[in-house]
Amino acid sequence: MTREQLTPITDQSALAEACERLAEGSFLCVDTEFHRETTYWPELCLIQASCEGYEVIIDPMAEDLDIGPFLQLLADESRPKVFHAARQDIEIFNRLLGHPPRPVFDTQIAAMALGIGDSISYDNLIQRLLKRRIDKSSQFTDWKRRPLTEKQLVYAMGDVTHLRDAYLKIMDRLSQMDRMHWAQAEMEELADPALYDTSPENAWKRLKMRKPNKEYAAIFASVAAWREEKAQTINKPRRRILKDDAIQEIAGQKPQNEKAFERLRAVPKGFIRSKYAEGLMDAVYAAVSNPDAHAPELPKRQHNPEMPAGAPEMLKVLLKAVSDEANVVPRLIANASDVEKLARGETSDDIAALSGWRYELFGKKALALLSGKLALSFENDQVRLFEL
Predict the structure, then answer these.
(1) What b/e readout covers 143-174, taking b as 16+ CB neighbours within 10 angstroms?
(2) CATH number 1.20.1250 given to 311-387
(3) What is the spatial distance between Cα 308 and Cα 305, in angstroms, rounded to a whole number?
(4) How far is CA 296 from the centre of its chain?
(5) Among 11, 25, 282, 371, which one is most buried in terms of CB atoms within 10 A?
(6) Spans of the chain below 50 pLDDT
(7) Quick one: DSSP state of residue 362?
(8) CA–CA gap between residue 342 and residue 44 (Å, rounded)
(9) Residue 265 to residues 220, 222, 270: CA-CA distances in angstroms?
């Protein structure tokens, strides 16, 4: 690859020409390099893109470069946007576009349908599929610094040239095995705007609420919203403002003055008097004063029926046997929540294992096992299924 091919695009006319070339492809492979260790919002440092027979690097940090033409390509739903472990990249483009790009093809999810690995890393995927080794020494370099070195650019370009070859090979295998629909639902979830919601009023949903009573919930949600808004305003990571444990402790202890805040173990000493804590005490006071106005609507606690002894373990053995036989990652067929619900005898519509290909592969057998119509045995270190 020549230096000219590796030179990042920094002017508008070159970007327009590159986007025209990329628009000719039937798919668009995308990767990014970004920085967010010290910021709330990820700072986009580099965009790499490829399609059939063409690849390019775009420098979004270039002065006066408007990446709008590339964003239009992402917004065009006529071709799949191919990523590996797509969520962080999509988070960046969701903010720039105002919505997630669609449709998305994630090679990490597709690998699960092919039995290649669960949450397999990009370099391991490339090694498994293409027998190529990736030099990862540039992975954690400073992508904000200019000029970028040739070694950095070779690494960056490889992220989408290898990805393109892997995508074509994966598509071929999925087609041959008729498994495209196995991974489709998982990929469609990546385009759900709720995954990338950063609105302060919903910040509490990312945390596990320990005491779902009204007053605790009101303080918990108010402090989580305060932290989210503060982190966005000063562009600092949430954990740099206040740790999650501190939100839990504040909700439990209900401190309303400096002395009470100083007694908290999870809140740094002197924090409440710092500039970062402005508005925190007001948020707690408002929630304590009027819990009804600040408590989020929580799902009603359901009484879960007792599980028959050994039912989850039996289902896990069945799931492992079925996934081994089909050569697919077990988590793609049924997650831990599905197994637990099935073990309790639930058959609700939200159990993915009870619909579509998952039902044919596992759900039907799981119900038969729980109803005594199917038995498991071990022969020569392998699980055998017997209909009764």
Answers:
(1) beeeebeeebbebbbbbbebbbbbbeebbebb
(2) no
(3) 9
(4) 24
(5) 25
(6) none
(7) I
(8) 43
(9) 17, 20, 12
Instruction: Report how far apart, in Å, the C-alpha atoms of 167 and of each of 71, 76, 219, 243 are.
Output: 21, 19, 47, 39
pLDDT of 1 reads 57
> What pLDDT score does 304 carry?
61
> What's the chain's Rg over C-alpha atoms?
25
Cα-flanking dihedrals φ and ψ of residue 289, to 5°? -70, -30
The answer to whether residues 89 and 196 touch, using CB atoms and an 8 Å cutoff, is no
Could you tell me if 357 and 113 are in contact, meaning their C-beta atoms sit under 8 angstroms apart? no
pTM for the whole structure: 0.90
- At residue 139, the pLDDT reads 85
Q: For tokens 């918990």, what's the residue?
A: 220
Q: Alpha carbon 201 to chain centroid distance?
A: 21
Buried b (16+ CB within 10 A) or exposed e, 94-131: bebeeebbbbbbbbbbbbbbbbbeeebebbebbeebee
pLDDT at 138: 85
Structure-block tokens of residue 333? 């067929």
pLDDT at 303: 61
In the chain, residues under CATH classification 3.30.420.10 are 3-196
100 and 192 Cβ atoms separated by less than 8 Å = yes
CATH H superfamily, domain 3-196: Ribonuclease H-like superfamily/Ribonuclease H (3.30.420.10)
Distance in angstroms (rounded) separating the CA atoms of residues 369 and 356 = 19
Which residue in 186, 177, 211 sits closest to 103, CA to CA? Answer: 186
Domain 200-294, CATH 3.30.830.10 — does that match? no
Residues forming CATH 1.10.150.80 domain(s) in the chain: 200-294
pLDDT tens figures, 287-326: 999 999 999 988 776 666 677 788 999 999 999 999 999 9
**3-state DSSP helix/strand/coil % of the chain, to nearest 5:** 55, 10, 35
